[in-house]
Fold each of these.
Amino acid sequence: PLRLVIAGLAMLILYTFTSGGITLNGTPLAGTGSLLTGGNSLLSAVLWFLGLGLISRDISGGSIQGGLLRPLSRATYVLSKWASLCGIGLVLLLFIHLSFLLHQGLSAPDAASLPLIFAAQALQIAAVSAVITLFSTVPINFGELGLLALGALLLGMLKGMNYRWNSAALDQALGVAWRILLPSVGDGTTRLLTSLPINAGICVAALAGAIALLQRREFSYAEQAAG
């Protein structure tokens, strides 16, 4: 229930982004930029919040054993978990795009870029959901939050190295990576197009890793009962 309440509040914020209800320096956010401003980082944060424990909860609670008693492969189990989270993200994405069209309409420039923006954000959701699924298959004594903290620490260390060694190339590389993973319409269609294969590759790699990790986990009760 707490997750649903917080997710509802996040959706209300997303709605205000896309409906022109948020101002920046006294000017309401308008155009497709409002879709990307709220629909990238905030929507990804909602997915992270809803997806924590996606598989690890089943493992720690023992319900995964019952799931594996069915004629269900571990790969299918992982893909079904990913698809459920991905489906939630796509519903939320469709909601903010519809609210955008309802409140801000569709100008000629937006009409050309909106399908590409939707596709880029949909693949972003698929990639984020796949990474969450991967994190949720690691041993429970480390877990998703530990990996997330490790990732944040790694990024901080890279940033610190950049300041220490004055590596402008590293700073630019991190900036480009961030803006590709969270596409920005301000760069035209180039970044949006580039994000499509990159996020697709991340999605495939993360799902393959999640399946491989779960294949190596042992659930003796389920395996004995299935046999």
Amino acid sequence: MCVFCLLSSYTLELEDSTTKEFKVFGEKWGDNSLPNATGGVVSYSFADQNVPGQFAEFDSFITDASFKSEINQAFSVWENSADIRFSLAVDTAAVDIRFGWGNIDGKGGILGQTTVPSSGPLNNVVVVLDSDEDWFLFGDAPSSQIDFSSTVLHEIGHAIGIDHSESEQALMNAAYSTTLFTLQQDDIDAATSIYGENDI
């Protein structure tokens, strides 16, 4: 069985949520730390270097346009679900969310690793994807391969403050699913509990 990711952060379960299965961190993007407040504009980049002080190291960098395109599309899916916007930026240490490859544990097992601050506002988030996986691009993956887009959707969920869901019918569940490839209601509820609904 594949596990979506390793994640190390304090978690906080909402008491007034519309579902009891999703969990969120106590941190979020945006100038307003209150629930249901916009996340503003968050920058992201495809790392081209390791920078001093970053939370995790990249073993290599994402240069293939197909992988970049899937990541761009995944950000759009989250934008359509909650009041948060994303902007692709030239890679620097100041970018909010940075993506790269890592030699995590070989084929199978852990697919990605997102590192976020354990307290305070979200910043300098690092998303490392396992370079050894048999990734499937542009469509729903067959059971013999790993769906890249759903994995990236899952990791971006962590990058915006969502923890693993207890629901087996959520993309934010810790276990990789061979049948769930896009956000489910539990995932959307988690995002809107943090940032409010997308009003565009």
Amino acid sequence: MKIALITGASSGMGREFAVQISKLYRNLDELWVTARRRDRLESLQKAIPIPVKVFAGDMQDDELFERIGQALEEEQADIRMLVNAAGYGKMKRAEEVEMSEQCGMIDINCKALTRMTLLCLPYMSKGSRIVNLASAAAFCPQPGFTVYAASKSYVLSFSRALGAELKNRKITVTAVCPGPVD
């Protein structure tokens, strides 16, 4: 079964990737989406012309990764595209943001992205693509956006190195680095 898997698909760039991929990739059997807000994923499911499998849950919870891993194994999925769009940022001086929020940004923007990528790699083959949402903030320190910018620097560096590692497998890795978006 040929699939695309998108994290953070309930809103923003993740949702837009889901809409566009379903239009542009004609050979997909299913689109798998994950985010915390089930209602938004179910709404997305109704708006997309191909079958959509919903995995509602928090990217900080082991249970979500276990469900996705089990489904990948059961379906013997062929992941044609992985889009790691889950992430967030808090725009304040580092000392003004709660430590739990700062660590949460690292957990989602770095750890969850890495974990999802490593979970999916065994199900990717020649011609598969990984798209990681980084940020223009990845290119230099950002006072007032300290942890976010640092986490997105990780995404950019991880993507570049992983792309080099996967070149022989002919799997493409792209770090998307947009500026501010609605």
Amino acid sequence: ANENDITPIKSVLESTIIFEDDALLIIDKPAGFAVHGGSGVSRGVIEQMRAERPKAKFLELVHRLDRETSGVLMLAKKRVALVALHEMIRNNLTDKRYLMLVAGEWPEQKKRVKLDLQKYVLPNGERRVNVVLDKSKDKYDQAQHSETIFYLKQAFVGFSLLEAQLITGRTHQLRVQLAHLGFPILGDDKYGDFANNKSLQKKGLKRMFLHSAETKLRHPVSGVQLQLIAPLPAELAKFLKTLTVKS
């Protein structure tokens, strides 16, 4: 087949673009969309984007978001931008904010959480992360320091809307830290409260309430300050309205 025979693929992600120039492509990733194909997912965000942009010479994910998480996801259209962004992330020069709704009434306005995390694999091949408390164990060598600053955005009866500022970006960091503290993210199918998740589904929360809401950083090529915002998805905003605000 010659090139002209290629049927253009149906655009799924074009409407989710928040920002684009010749170096960057930033999308508001829908919940339930894996960033990478594999493990039962034929096409993730990166494969889909490449299929939608067959002429793009370079397109790479800058970082990951869990499949169930929505919000700001950065892709690089130039290698120089990818390298620069990785350097910025390593040196904590990006300000990433997430919104999450947790079970329980969060007591503090601001809390800095530092925990050591380690990855492990379940017998079925699924990746999981846990908190390492015993520093004397050999396993501790593989542990990674994780750090987040949590802010209380809105107190509800029995629930709390939090904003998290990532200091490190470990796998499942927010989900594991919050579950460990006894404030699991609602709808989290790996670390959450399963009985609670089930009852919340009946009340209309069909997904994990975790959203990458805002990323601030300098443009990796031009140095211009960028503020990338992904509004809270309608289904999450709607669920918040069903809760009772704590007076």
